[in-house]
Write a structure and sequence with these properties.
The protein has 434 residues and is an alpha+beta fold. Helix content is 36%, strand content 24%. The structure holds zinc ion (ZN) (2 copies).
Length: 434
């Protein structure tokens, strides 16, 4: 569905030639994106500790984020650098026993951040396909070991106990995969442009004002959907999706800005276009056909589908990398159920670029999607203050995984059924009509 557009690649070449300048974005744009991450994304508070999680591919923007965080009043900014090539070596050469042995000092560091009420800024810069040659069992088991060791941290973030945000910055390998027809420098420049554009950052706009406006639009969508209080949604299109997703009782549609446990308004994802809620764990039935490849554990899963019964995946297939789906479903019981259902019009800014970003932060905002795995407590009334046990009783799905995949299409029809059986058309020809 989101095929790379050769003409778009050529267009970028023309733009970069006509400008005739260097390939790094202007300092102005980098500063604006960093400010957006600090002031709108995490909304760093005076005296707060800030943890920036970044890869060595993103030094420039990360340094600017640190500076902007201090200017916003941060008490101290910690940068947790990672490097995907180092991680690749760890996964390749360490024994499985060593990989699943998560040291206490690492866990303690996360405990410290949580206790201090730190906020978190992640700079995403994936290297798609890097772990292709890694033993999937090793990748999966080390992932599970880390998830188990720092589950409290994941619950802290997914429960919005403190502010967190994710932005993205390019690296040459990623950029070349998104724009294969460009040389490396031009590809990086094109990906920067696409990221700024999707994040609503331009040379002469005020991104903060843009995000205020954008959040207001998303809030309106949430309110309309919350008023309908649908019992279930029926998704249908011509490529084989015919799926009923029952929603949890007292579900809450969310999207755009959110409030942390201490009441600070923040934006978890830059960019974001989605409005999403919590499915009832045992209430999904029928077939869903994905429309965008899924980048999972370094593998690109293509042309895949799932069949659900009583909420659980009972059959699945893929033309490429089906094993990656097998691994995902083997994570735990909860990875066989969905924890999120999200609506995005086909006609939306990121979707309209027709760029396959190979990064969920962008691709999930181009299309209706759902996630296998953990649900967000905030998607049910009073969910963030409820115990996990009580949440699970009402149909909240718990899992160590949360993997989004896209299934929106230009002909997607969605019909919502209200609690008293009334049918309301929500989507027609891929777009919101309510
Ligand atoms: Zn989502
Ligand atoms: Zn998600």
């Amino acid at each position: 569905m989101y095929k790379r557009n050769v003409f778009l690649d050529i267009l970028y070449v023309i733009i970069s030639f006509s400008k005739g300048d260097v390939h790094m974005p202007s300092k102005n744009l980098i500063t604006k994106l960093a400010k957006l991450a600090v002031n709108v994304g995490a909304n760093v508070q005076k005296g707060q500790i800030v943890v920036v999680r970044a890869t060595t591919e993103t030094k420039e923007i990360t340094r600017e984020i640190v500076k902007q965080a201090y200017l916003a009043g941060a008490k101290e900014v910690f940068v947790q650098w990672s490097d995907d090539y180092v991680s690749h070596s760890n996964l390749t050469y360490q024994s499985i026993e060593a990989l699943i042995d998560v040291p206490n000092w690492l866990v303690d560091q996360y405990k410290g951040f949580v206790d201090e009420g730190a906020c978190f800024i992640s700079v995403s810069s994936p290297i798609p396909g890097l772990n292709k040659d890694v033993d999937p069992k090793k990748a999966q088991q080390s992932g599970i070991a880390i998830q188990k060791a720092i589950h409290f941290f994941r619950e802290h973030l997914m429960g919005n106990k403190s502010q967190w945000t994710i932005i993205a910055a390019p690296n040459p390998v990623w950029a070349k995969q998104v724009f294969p027809n460009l040389n490396e420098d031009d590809a990086v420049e094109a990906l920067w442009k696409a990221i700024f554009n999707a994040s609503r950052v331009t040379e002469d706009n005020d991104p903060v004002a843009e995000w205020d406006k954008h959040n207001a639009t998303l809030l309106k969508h949430n309110q309309i959907l919350n008023q309908f209080n649908f019992k279930h949604l029926h998704f249908k299109n011509s490529i084989g999706t015919d799926l009923i997703v029952e929603l949890v009782k007292n579900h809450v549609w969310a999207g755009g800005g959110e409030h942390s446990g201490s009441g600070v308004y923040f934006n978890p994802n830059i960019p974001t276009e989605e409005t999403f809620t919590m499915p009832y764990k045992w209430g999904t039935r029928g077939k869903v056909v994905a429309t965008v490849p899924l980048n999972y554990q370094g593998k690109l899963v293509e042309d895949f589908w799932f069949v659900f019964k009583d909420g659980k995946v009972v059959d699945y297939g893929a033309k490429k990398e089906k094993d990656a789906l097998t691994n995902l479903l083997a994570t735990d019981d909860g990875s066989n159920y969905i924890g999120e259902i999200a609506l995005i019009s086909y006609d939306s800014p990121i979707s309209n670029t027709k760029i396959l970003f190979l990064n969920t932060l962008f691709d999930e905002n181009a299309s209706c999607h759902m996630a296998l795995g953990k649900a967000y407590p905030m998607n049910v009334k009073n969910g963030v203050n409820e115990s996990l046990e009580n949440l699970e009783k009402i149909g909240y799905n718990n899992s160590m995984s949360h993997v989004d995949f896209m299934f929106g299409s230009p002909d997607m029809e969605i019909v919502g059924t209200t609690q008293d059986g009334k049918e309301i058309k929500v989507f027609e020809k891929g777009n919101f009509i309510i």
